[in-house]
């Protein structure tokens, strides 16, 4: 094994040990940071590698949460079975809508997925067994350590999948689609199947995150399950870290969660405005994300930022 | 039959306002190739501008619209000149992110400055209406519709007849060719974005009269504007207005016959259906 691998395993082990030593607040913060990192990583498969900017990943997150909750509340099933139901529901939805929606490109795809999340939220809030607008209350389970480890496991699994994608023939096909879809098709990449598979993977991982979060927070309503700001967070964290890289979404998610946590404790309303400012500056001065920043900065120093700015200027 | 006619009327009146909201977004999208996620935030700022002109200075909301439009034009001009021009040639995702960042900044600055309270612009004639052929016509809504019509017509005239308008359309059609003919996009882009935000400002003021203004109103309105801009075609002002009317009627019908919770879903349902069923035509148009 290379030193890099040992380093990664060491990091994961250190993270896994946090519930043993860390405070309750730290574990709770860890759960949300890890699950948003997993969501960003799932978004990375579709948005980063395939180049399809999805604003509908929160649909799969929400369906995962609802599938889990309905199985547990209405069906009196265990959490494991519920999670399976949630994933099945989200993957079925991705399979159903993936066909027509993946034919769209660019902003049309982005908005069609955004529309899907709006429509799904309205549909769910009219279903009796899903608790309508009031929401569902899940059985209480006091064990933040379990949720923490589950979130960590999901993030590791998702990252392993992305690591495989980055060096497999499948991943090369996805990147080819991102760079030039028509050329990829001509070169023999089965683009519809590749895109559908990327969507299914992203949907499955997002659904697990949704199921874990639903059981952890014990309460679920359409507004929180299909929250589009969550989807926007996935996008921003991925792009901030470095889209289309294995570690980028994790780096982006951890650093932005830390920034917003720090800001929120210092100044409440202005924190969010500052968050917006960070996004603008990051995209203008380092469009390749944090992962590219290190390399670019070593090569060009401060000029790296100015070069980026000049590159896309009118 | 009577109910259906009344729904139709309500939908048309609301739809005119929706169309006005989408005008600026469609113009910016078509010319600058930017899907402006901060569009709703500019609408919100227009709403507050008119609110404070009315509540603070006692100016009639309709008379305050030009003030809001000038203010929003300046703001939009500066935002394009100093921020968006930096990413004029970047990938779509990056422009989406930057405009989203601007949206966040504007929303929370507004929350900080104006508080989260719901504000309604309430002129003395706010609740007035008159009867026409058995139908109830609300005065404020009719005024908003008429203003939207005038502004859309004005934009159409501006784009079709004036030299600057023709330069804007040329830039939208082919940037390289336009530059070869001596059009400077550094002059056109901020101007065009400013016009877009000015129209958003007018829409915000009118929205405040017929509904409410809050710092958070932007996102839904951005999404609606997007739907309408696609329905109507990006660079055709009257088409956009028609798209707005279509959405308004669809929403009003949903409210009565289905359930108001489906209201936001219906617009997106329409959008997804249209995009999926007839994508080619829309792509060519864009």
Overview of the molecule:
The complex is a heterodimer of chains A (314) and B (286). With 314 residues, chain A is mostly helical. Chain A is built from 16 helices and two strands. Chain A has helices at residues 3-16, 18-21, 24-49, 57-73, 79-101, 106-124, 144-167, 169-179, 181-186, 191-217, 222-225, 228-241, 248-266, 268-285, 290-300, 303-311; strands at 136-137, 219-220. Chain A has a two-stranded antiparallel sheet with strand order 1-2. The longest helix of chain A has 27 residues, at 191-217. Chain A is globular, with a radius of gyration of 20 Å. The model of chain A has no long low-confidence stretch (mean pLDDT 86). Chain B is mostly helical and 286 residues long. Chain B contains twelve helices and two strands; from the N terminus they run ααααββαααααααα. Chain B has helices at residues 2-32, 39-57, 61-82, 92-114, 139-161, 163-173, 175-180, 185-210, 218-232, 237-258, 263-277, 279-285, and strands at 129-132, 135-138. In chain B, strands 1-2 form a two-stranded antiparallel sheet. In chain B, helix 1 runs antiparallel to helix 8 (185-210), helix 1 crosses helix 9 and helix 2 (39-57) packs across helix 8. The model of chain B is unreliable at 280-286 (pLDDT under 50). At the A-B interface, helix 6, helix 12 and helix 14 of A face helix 4, helix 8, helix 9, helix 11 and helix 12 of B.
Topology readout:
The complex is a heterodimer of chains A (about 325) and B (about 290).
Chain A: H1 3-16, H2 18-21, H3 24-49, H4 57-73, H5 79-101, H6 106-124, E1 136-137, H7 144-167, H8 169-179, H9 181-186, H10 191-217, E2 219-220, H11 222-225, H12 228-241, H13 248-266, H14 268-285, H15 290-300, H16 303-311
Antiparallel strand pairs in A: 1-2
Chain B: H1 2-32, H2 39-57, H3 61-82, H4 92-114, E1 129-132, E2 135-138, H5 139-161, H6 163-173, H7 175-180, H8 185-210, H9 218-232, H10 237-258, H11 263-277, H12 279-285
Antiparallel strand pairs in B: 1-2
Helix pairs in contact in B: 1-5, 1-8, 1-9, 1-10, 2-3, 2-4, 2-8, 2-9, 3-8, 5-6, 5-8, 6-8, 9-10, 9-11, 10-11
């Amino acid at each position: 094994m290379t030193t890099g691998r040992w380093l990664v395993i060491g990091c994961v082990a250190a993270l896994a040990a946090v519930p043993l030593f860390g405070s309750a607040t730290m574990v709770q913060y860890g759960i949300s940071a890890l699950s948003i990192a997993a969501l960003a990583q799932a978004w990375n498969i579709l948005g980063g590698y395939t180049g399809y900017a999805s604003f509908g990943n929160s649909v799969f997150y929400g369906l995962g949460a609802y599938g889990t909750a309905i199985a547990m509340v209405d069906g009196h099933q265990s959490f494991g079975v519920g999670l399976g139901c949630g994933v099945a529901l989200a993957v079925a939805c991705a399979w159903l809508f993936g066909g027509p929606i993946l034919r769209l490109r660019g902003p049309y795809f982005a908005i069609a997925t955004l529309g899907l999340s709006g429509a799904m939220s309205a549909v769910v809030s009219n279903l009796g067994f899903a608790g309508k607008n009031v929401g569902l209350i899940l059985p209480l389970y006091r064990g933040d350590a379990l949720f923490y480890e589950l979130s960590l496991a999901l993030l590791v699994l998702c990252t392993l999948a992305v690591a495989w994608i980055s060096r497999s023939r499948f991943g090369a096909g996805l990147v080819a689609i991102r760079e030039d879809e028509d050329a990829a098709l001509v070169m023999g990449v089965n683009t519809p199947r590749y895109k559908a598979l990327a969507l299914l993977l992203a949907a499955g991982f997002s659904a697990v995150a949704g199921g874990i979060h639903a059981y952890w927070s014990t309460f679920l309503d359409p507004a929180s399950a299909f929250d589009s700001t969550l989807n926007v967070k996935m996008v921003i964290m991925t792009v901030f870290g470095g889209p289309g890289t294995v570690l980028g979404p994790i780096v982006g998610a951890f650093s932005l969660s830390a920034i917003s946590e720090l800001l929120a404790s210092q100044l409440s309303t202005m924190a969010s405005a500052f968050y917006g400012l960070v996004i603008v500056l990051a995209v203008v001065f380092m469009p390749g994300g944090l992962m590219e920043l290190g390399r670019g900065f070593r090569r060009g120093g401060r000029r790296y930022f100015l070069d980026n700015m000049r590159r896309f200027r009118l | 039959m009577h109910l259906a006619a009344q729904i139709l009327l309500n939908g048309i009146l609301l739809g005119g306002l929706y169309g006005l909201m989408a005008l600026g977004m469609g113009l910016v999208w078509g010319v600058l190739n930017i899907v402006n996620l901060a569009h709703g935030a500019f609408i919100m700022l227009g709403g507050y501008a008119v609110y404070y002109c009315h509540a603070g200075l006692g100016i009639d909301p309709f008379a305050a619209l030009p003030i809001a439009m000038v203010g929003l034009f300046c703001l939009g001009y500066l935002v394009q000149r100093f921020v968006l021009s930096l990413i004029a040639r970047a990938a779509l995702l990056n422009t989406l992110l930057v405009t989203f960042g601007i949206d966040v900044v504007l929303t929370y600055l507004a929350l900080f400055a104006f508080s989260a309270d719901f504000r309604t612009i309430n002129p003395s004639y706010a609740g007035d209406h008159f009867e026409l052929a058995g139908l109830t016509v609300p005065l404020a809504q009719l005024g908003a519709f008429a203003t939207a019509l005038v502004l859309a017509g004005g934009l159409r005239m501006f784009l079709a007849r004036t030299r600057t308008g023709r330069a804007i359309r040329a830039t939208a059609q082919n940037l390289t060719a336009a530059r070869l003919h001596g059009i400077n996009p550094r002059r056109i882009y901020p101007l065009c974005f400013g016009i877009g935000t000015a129209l958003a400002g007018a829409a915000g003021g009118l929205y405040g009269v017929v509904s409410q203004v809050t710092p958070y109103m932007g996102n839904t309105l951005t999404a609606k504007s997007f739907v309408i801009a696609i329905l109507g075609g990006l660079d055709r002002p009257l088409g956009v207005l028609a798209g707005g009317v279509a959405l308004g009627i669809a929403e009003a019908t949903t409210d009565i016959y289905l359930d108001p919770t489906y209201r936001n879903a219906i617009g997106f349902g329409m959008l997804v259906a249209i995009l999926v069923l007839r994508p080619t035509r829309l792509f060519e148009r864009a």
